[in-house]
């Protein structure tokens, strides 16, 4: 079967070399004191079509940038909880964000306890930042993650150390988005490895089950999996047993991500030369030893960029839980807008939420490019 | 112990006797029986629970509801539909609406993606930066958030139809949707479409014939230009024969909304704009990667053979770049189609949206979700089957 390449995110990072599609720019003459002039001539005015395009771009910038700066900074209203002032001003209404940011970030979490989700988020970001350095990829990092998850769970739920208990139906905002994605990736990863191995297995029965699962999940939209999780899971369970909405959505996300991750890992498995498998067999290793010591370390290294990309797209896709009524970051931003006096300031609200999503996703994608360069050991064809 | 036989007792080459549970073949069968049995048991358990639950909650089962009257209206439909029609018909309307937004979206996203991808590689610094800004800016924001943004922008940011924003004559942008003039040329329009189809067919035939002739005799035929001329020329000819009509059916303000022309509802417009700009960023990256994947030596070798620049592009660069581009491009097309299901969040009546309403009215969640999944699976699997066939056709022959 021909491999379907899935690139949810990044095409591999390559140096931006001059392309052969457009004419190569003419060689610059010997350096003169006017370096900027040379640079502009080479990069902006190399020929007539380029000059026209450059002038068009400059005109576009001239038309858009000053009004934008005016809107974002100069005429913006920064504080004061009065919508009337914002309506009168012609700039952005950052006062709206100032007024509603706690709700947008933490949703329905009890107002006086907001320090808890804030601390949990900060802790998570700190551990995430630590894990970014490949030098720290040691067994203790797993312990750190486990500790972080326990501490964050304690902070979010409370009920001990004098913290009031907060049921997870009241969780919301950025912490919920992060929980859905982190728990999603942690739980779907082992499942994905098993699915990928199963798909490469030479036992037809196991292969069929794995292919069936992967292709089925990848063939349907996430929203239908979430629908299934929200309306059908309750029917699947024996009578009297219920699981809450958050867990159901989480299970849906895990199932969905596992199928896509499995394909990313399968790509890595396929890239390993046949000789590695044969060498392991020749050493007399059992299947699991071969997989654990020889195959997976190499395959996972190759698949890191697509895995990170999958993580980015899952992080963005958690926003879909709005449709089954969970209070994630996008839902809280949208709900903040239902307050009648502030209805008109949707641009500010969406920009605020978009900026948070953007910062996380952008750094993850940059990080995946960095990893790809760093882990390049020259074995790849 | 002393009774341990010396190593010579088991001569090399004599296969040690293996008990059956240590034999690989039996083990494989055992594992498969266990896994399949486990899957089967799980399925049986879930089905059993579901049947008990359905019975205790008194929910009807089966597809009988498809025959019943739907009783709800949809805001837009490519075919005749009224609330008196059946659930089956409203689901067909949903499928058609999904296909409509997906097909238009795929075409526009490809155009934007190719432009942005090539622009990112431009030697013009400003153009490259513009494209990078677009790709990096929009790709890292959830598509659902973008849909909400566009939808708010259209329904709250644009003026009412009476003060509609009128950028070009005949085009109206208002919070009730976009009004666009359409050509009102009667039969000439049909004739032009027929001529276009004939032109494409003829161009394809000529290209085939020219290639075969070139392989046999070495003579070159300008099939590309002739084909292009046919594709553009035949509809033009049909238009001239039809009396060169220029009448346009432009939207006009009547009462509170526009009449005439073609109107895009705010929901459709927001969904289309959101999907196109979001998917365009991914396509741009795919195109950029594909072009970069062809090494520069290929161009130089082509030029060294004496081929013209346009021929190097068409015969050497494009076929190789396309081999890299097509597979991920297909999965982007599939992603766009699947993302069109987000329509439910802004109220465009696509399949998921109408199925959701049907589920709420009938309570038959299982059937509703199954129908959604079945339709998307059919589309996805048929496209991927087609792509596998296409991949086999264009993959390198002789290599592994």
Task: Describe the secondary-structure layout.
The complex is a heterodimer of chains A (381) and B (400).
Chain A: H1 35-43, H2 48-74, H3 83-88, H4 94-106, H5 115-131, H6 139-157, H7 173-199, H8 204-219, H9 222-236, H10 245-271, H11 274-282, H12 287-317, H13 329-336, H14 346-375
Chain B: H1 24-57, H2 87-120, H3 125-139, H4 143-157, E1 172-174, E2 177-180, E3 182-183, H5 187-217, H6 223-241, E4 248-249, E5 252-254, E6 257-259, E7 262-264, H7 266-293, H8 296-304, H9 309-339, H10 343-346, H11 351-362, H12 365-394
Antiparallel strand pairs in B: 1-2, 2-7, 3-4, 5-6
Helix pairs in contact in B: 2-3, 2-7, 2-11, 3-7, 4-7, 5-6, 7-9, 8-9, 9-12, 11-12
Structure description:
The complex is a heterodimer of chains A (381) and B (400). Chain A contains 14 helices and no strands. With 381 residues, chain A is mainly alpha-helical. Chain A has 2 domains: 35-72, no CATH class; 84-109 and 166-375, MetI-like fold (Orthogonal Bundle), CATH 1.10.3720. Chain A starts with 34 loop residues before the first helix and ends in a 6-residue tail after the last helix. Residues 1-25 of chain A have low confidence and may be disordered. With 400 residues, chain B is mostly helical. Chain B has a domain at 87-184 and 247-394: MetI-like fold. Chain B has helices at residues 24-57, 87-120, 125-139, 143-157, 187-217, 223-241, 266-293, 296-304, 309-339, 343-346, 351-362, 365-394, and strands at residues 172-174, 177-180, 182-183, 248-249, 252-254, 257-259, 262-264. In chain B, the strands form 3 sheets. In chain B, strands 1-2-7 form a 3-stranded antiparallel beta sheet. In chain B, a hairpin with a 2-residue loop joins strand 1 (172-174) and strand 2 (177-180). The two termini of chain B are 56 Å apart. The chains are: A mainly alpha (381), B mainly alpha (400). At the A-B interface, helix 2, helix 8, helix 9, helix 12 and helix 13 of A face helix 1, helix 3, helix 4, helix 7 and helix 9 of B.
């Amino acid at each position: 079967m021909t491999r379907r390449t899935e690139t949810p995110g990044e095409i591999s990072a390559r140096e931006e070399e001059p392309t052969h599609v457009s004419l190569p720019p003419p060689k610059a003459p010997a350096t003169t004191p006017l370096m900027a002039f040379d640079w502009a001539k080479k990069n902006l005015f190399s020929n007539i079509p380029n000059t026209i395009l450059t002038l068009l771009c400059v005109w576009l910038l001239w038309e858009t940038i000053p009004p934008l700066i005016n809107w974002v900074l100069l005429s913006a209203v920064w504080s004061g909880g009065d919508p009337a002032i914002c309506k009168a001003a012609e700039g952005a209404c950052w006062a709206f964000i100032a007024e509603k940011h706690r709700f947008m970030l933490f949703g329905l979490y009890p107002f006086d306890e907001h320090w808890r989700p804030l601390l949990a988020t900060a802790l998570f970001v700190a551990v995430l930042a630590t894990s970014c350095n490949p030098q720290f990829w040691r067994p203790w990092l797993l312990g750190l993650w486990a500790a972080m998850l326990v501490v964050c769970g304690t902070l979010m739920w409370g009920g001990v150390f004098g913290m009031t208990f907060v049921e997870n139906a009241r969780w919301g905002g950025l912490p919920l988005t992060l929980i859905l994605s982190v728990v999603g990736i942690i739980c779907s990863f082992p499942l994905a490895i098993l699915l990928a191995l199963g798909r490469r297995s030479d036992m037809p029965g196991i292969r069929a089950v794995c292919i069936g699962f992967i292709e089925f999940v990848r063939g349907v939209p996430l929203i239908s999996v979430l629908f299934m999780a929200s309306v059908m899971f309750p029917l699947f369970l024996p009578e009297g047993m219920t699981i809450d909405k958050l867990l159901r959505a989480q299970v849906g996300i895990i199932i969905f991500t596992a199928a896509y991750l499995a394909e990313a890992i399968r790509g890595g498995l396929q890239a390993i030369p046949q000789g590695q498998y044969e060498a392991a067999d020749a050493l007399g290793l059992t299947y699991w030893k071969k997989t654990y010591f020889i195959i997976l370390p190499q395959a996972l290294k190759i698949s890191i960029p697509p895995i990170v990309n999958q993580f980015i797209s899952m992080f963005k896709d958690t926003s879909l839980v709005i449709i089954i009524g969970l209070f994630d970051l996008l839902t809280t931003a949208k709900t903040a807008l239902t307050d009648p006096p502030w209805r008109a300031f949707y641009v500010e609200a969406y920009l605020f939420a978009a900026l948070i999503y953007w910062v996380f996703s952008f750094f993850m994608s940059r990080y995946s490019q960095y990893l790809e360069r760093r882990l390049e050991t020259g074995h790849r064809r | 112990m002393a009774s341990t036989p010396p190593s010579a007792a088991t001569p090399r080459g004599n296969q040690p006797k293996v008990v059956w549970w240590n034999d690989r073949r039996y083990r494989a069968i055992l594992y498969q029986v266990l896994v399949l049995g486990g899957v089967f048991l799980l399925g049986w358990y879930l089905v059993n629970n579901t049947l008990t639950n359905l019975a205790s909650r008194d929910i009807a089962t089966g597809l009988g509801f498809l025959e019943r009257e739907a009783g709800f209206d949809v805001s837009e439909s490519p075919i005749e539909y009224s609330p008196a029609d059946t659930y089956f018909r409203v689901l067909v309307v949903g499928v058609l609406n999904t296909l409509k937004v997906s097909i238009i979206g795929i075409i526009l996203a490809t155009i934007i993606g190719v432009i942005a991808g090539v622009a990112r590689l431009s030697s013009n610094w400003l153009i490259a930066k513009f494209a990078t800004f677009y790709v990096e800016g929009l790709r890292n924001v959830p598509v659902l958030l973008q849909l909400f943004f566009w939808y708010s922008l259209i329904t709250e940011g644009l003026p009412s139809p009476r003060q509609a924003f009128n950028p070009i004559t005949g085009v109206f942008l208002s919070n009730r949707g976009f009004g666009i003039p359409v050509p009102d040329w009667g039969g000439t329009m049909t004739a032009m479409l027929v001529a276009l189809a004939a032109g494409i067919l003829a161009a394809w035939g000529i290209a085939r014939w020219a290639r075969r002739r070139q392989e046999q005799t070495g003579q070159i035929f300008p099939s590309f230009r002739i084909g292009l001329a046919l594709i553009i020329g035949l509809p033009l000819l049909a238009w001239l024969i039809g009396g060169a009509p220029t009448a346009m059916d432009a939207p006009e303000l009547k009462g509170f909304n526009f009449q005439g022309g073609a109107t895009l509802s705010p929901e459709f417009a927001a969904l289309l704009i959101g999907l196109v700009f979001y998917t365009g960023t991914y396509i741009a990256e795919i195109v950029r990667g594909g072009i970069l994947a062809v090494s520069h030596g290929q161009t130089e070798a082509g030029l060294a053979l004496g081929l013209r620049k346009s021929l190097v592009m068409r015969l050497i660069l494009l076929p190789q770049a396309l081999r890299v581009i097509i597979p991920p491009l297909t999965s982007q097309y599939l992603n766009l189609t699947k993302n069109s299901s987000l329509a439910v969040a802004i109220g465009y009546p696509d399949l998921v949206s109408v199925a959701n309403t049907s589920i709420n009215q009938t309570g038959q969640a299982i059937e509703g979700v199954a129908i959604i999944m079945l339709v998307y699976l059919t589309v996805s699997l048929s496209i991927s089957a087609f792509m596998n066939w296409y991949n086999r056709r264009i993959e390198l022959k002789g290599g592994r």
